[in-house]
Amino acid sequence: MNDETRPIPSEKNEVSTLALHDQVIHETEEPFEDMVKGPVWFYLFVVLAMVVSAFYLGRHMGRLDTAAHIGFLQASGQDTTQKEAAPANTVSGASVFSSRCVSCHQANGQGIPGAFPPLVKSDYVLGNPEILARIILHGLQGELQVEGKTYNGLMPPWKDQLNDEEIAAVMNHIRTELGDNKADKVDGALVKRIRNETKDRQNSWTVPELEALGKS
Amino acid sequence: MSTPVTSNPAQEESTVDHSKIKVSPEEMEAYDQSGRKPVLLGFFIAVVWLLIGTVLGDLSSFKFDRPDLLTEQAYLTFGRIRPAHLNVMVYGWASTAMFSVSLWLMPRLCRTPLRWGNLAVIGILVWTVGLGVGIALLLAGHGDGLEWLELDRQWADPLLVIGAAMVGASVWKTLAARNVHHLYVSIWYVAASYPWFLIIFLAGNMPFYKGVESAAVNWFYAHNALGLWLTTINLGLIYYLLPKIIGRPIYSYWLSLVGFWGLALFYALNGMHHLIGGPLPSWMIATSITASIMMIVPVVAVGINQHMTVVGRFGAMRYSPALTLAVIAAMSYTAVSLQGILTALVSVNRITHFTHWTIAHSHLGLYMFVTLSLFGGMYYILPRVLKKEWPSRRLVRAHILLVGGGMVLYIVALGIGGVLQGLSLLAPGEGFEASVSSAKPWLLLRSVSAVIISAGHLVFAYHAYLLAFTSRNSLTRHPPFYELKPVLVKKRVP
Q: What residue in A sits closest to B300 (Cα-Cα)?
């Protein structure tokens, strides 16, 4: 550092120093810049920042296409599955429902008219539990009639996010707790059986497929 | 051979370097008086907007504690009051005060009287009319519906563009007429801000973006309004005030260079980190996060540069409110930028996105950095333009303690509340109501701090009124070290 070029050296008693300059100090010297190069560690730090940034960009930039930012979705998916895997036998259907289902079907299970079908009074919910388990495991797409209204949406599959006990719990929840819904309880064994029967399935169900199943 | 055109040796010497020649107080006074009209007009309008924005901000804050407060009229609902608060503070208070700061800095730094001062006066008035129209329309329910760009793009925005361009023309005309050869770092920041602001403001307000594009352009603008407009002029002001008041040169010209060009290069790419997790192509978000990480370079450069300029002389803060506020603002710039880099990382952003943390962060930037720097500038500039000193040390002390203390409380409270809210939102078993109730006590604390800050603003406005409109204690010549007695600590009884 070059303190000798600085007009007022650092001192403890600024008052006395400044009192001497009472007249001139109203306009102190105009500021200018020293030509000090700055500390070496700063320039090393710049290089470090560039290296870190280059690694980050290479790791996360992905291809230059319109795919969404996958890394973020994966991170959240891993975390939640790890957390929920532990308490397998004591799952609450209500908590699964509020974390997975309410964003579309709403907390009261009434859905959103025209967009998401209601679960209350729905034949798909109250009817054959094997069909309901298939819908939750693999999702549902295409046209669908509930309560006399037509919906054309897409329900995602949950087979990778929810285990058998969780699916059974949420089925019981929507079959018995929502609105005036009253139907038989199911257990994890049923879900496990359906999961095994349909383990080769890749696509979501459509209504004609489910109707064919119901008749056979 | 032909002789150089400038034959006056004193003149020639002064063109070599900014401050090799000792400035006479008379010369500086002439520069200050050349911009007297626009500078005073801008500061007056800014303080009026500050008070309006304070009321709007307080109302928005109280509505979190009492959701049914003042909901009978549509124009008093949260959805209109809150954007009105943002726009009044950004375009009314900060931007108008920044016009005055730039119109005061440029003549001094260029060593020439202000050019086209009357154009700047008209520019400030046009800007104010445009903003008034925009705020009225916003409260009446006509806004563009994009954060930071709410002002109506048909009736308000053209006036803002014309007003800023007029002030910018005055700034650049003064720069063109400069009598110095070497441009001091503050000139780079102030002069560059005007074209940058006009470019981003025009780009942000174009009417043809749709869907995701619109969101991307929205955050391109909103982030750069902070980075390439609010930040730059205030850094220019701080770069002037610190060495000027302390009487020392800026530590390093090279670090100034790195700080300026690093900011220009990386800040412009930062906006997309507001949309992490959104439906944008991954390269846009990854590039933006990378640029956010690289922002550490200019931020650390400016931080070192300003710290090394002041280091060892922090005691002088006791005598100069302008220096005190400039130092706090400079530190807050470093703090808010480092916090911003941290928040841009995906792992942190998962928790803080869509929470009150963001509000705490933006107030650290817009208040602790921008607003305190402008307060500091007004403490330094107004006495020189008005040729009288601030009348009361007590009011200065009360103002700084109220706004500084209040804002620290604000940021800490909302920061904690935001993190709790974010963790609650992420917990799969908890309902949405849990995230609301976990933030509630912290929101109440925020309202308390809002009242404290408002009291500080009232003190400042009253003090500025005393200074400008009464002749009490008016002394024409006083050192910048205010009265040579401690301002911020009570005098010790021997």
A: A42
